[in-house]
Amino acid sequence: MEQFGLLWNEQGRELKSLDISCGITHDQQLSVIFTQLPFLEKLVAQDSGFGPISLTALLTNLRDKIQVLDLAGCKAVTPEMVNLIMESCPSLKSLSADRLRAADGDDSGGGGDSGISEESHKNRWVCHDLEELRIVFTGPTLLPLNEAQFATYSKIATLRKLRVLNLGRYTSSTPPPKSILDLSLAGGFRQLGSLTELRVFDFCDLDHKMTMEEFKFMLKAWPRLETIHGKLSSGGTRASFIESYLKNKRPWLRVKSSMGFNRRATRTEY
Fold it and tell me: Cis before residue 140, ω within 30 degrees of 0?
């Protein structure tokens, strides 16, 4: 942590933004940041050692202040930890992480192997001002698959200020976890009609079951939609037809299917 001594001296305790991607590898060392920077609002910690100790320090010192949190590629971050962040940080506007366990109805989601004691786990997200969410919803789930999908879409639908929703792979350096969502109307996808502020919808590497009906739903439900990123269909001819339809209905819509598309450029600057 010697490299941070100078940081504290020069910029003091009023620092609001910090990027330590691919930096600190030890959870204990990283946790010190959250006691030294009481005004921190934005933390980009991709591929770092962020883990349960860091999370405890963050929630103790910054739960009401943190607005942007990027934990993509952090191997020690469990789905339960991500859920706890969403249940504890009301000021959060942007959250990126590898995976979150699908909703299990009234299941508390427990602390699992996160090593974190949860005083009151109400299974309710408090980050109602969230504008950007990048996460893959995974199993296992206590519910039948279709019920788990409905419950998960129901929770996402409460985030009515979302502008960017990425349900597929976010970084190209990590293997994509398996999502339980198939993005079909039959599976509950229609519940996301409440996300009327949505600009970007990303489902890269997600094995979906979308047909033309799902894409028609997107255009109707999301009037501000500007970018779709993901494989439209397994068949090339069918994918071309869907893309032509989308462009005809909304000429300014960007349709991207390759991992080369710079998704990080969509991140809002806070």
Answer: yes
- Residues 119 and 63: their CA atoms lie apart, in Å, by 14
Residue 239: phi and psi, rounded to 5, are -60, -40
Does the pTM of the predicted model rise above 0.85? Answer: yes
Residues 196-225, buried b or exposed e (16+ Cβ, 10 A)? ebbbbbbbbbbebebeeebbebbeebbeeb
- Provide the CATH topology of domain 100-108+124-257: 3.80.10
Q: Name the one residue in this structure whose structure tokens are 């910029």.
A: 11
Q: Helices 212-221 and 236-249, interaxial angle, to 10°?
A: 20
* Closest to 234 measured CA to CA, from 223, 226, 242: 242
How many whole angstroms separate alpha carbon 39 and alpha carbon 41? 6
- Express each pLDDT in 41-95 by its tens digit: 999 999 999 999 999 999 999 999 999 999 999 999 999 999 999 999 999 999 9
Q: At what angle do helices 79-88 and 52-62 cross, to 10 degrees?
A: 0
Chain centre distance of CA 203: 12
Domain range list for the chain: 1-77, 100-108+124-257
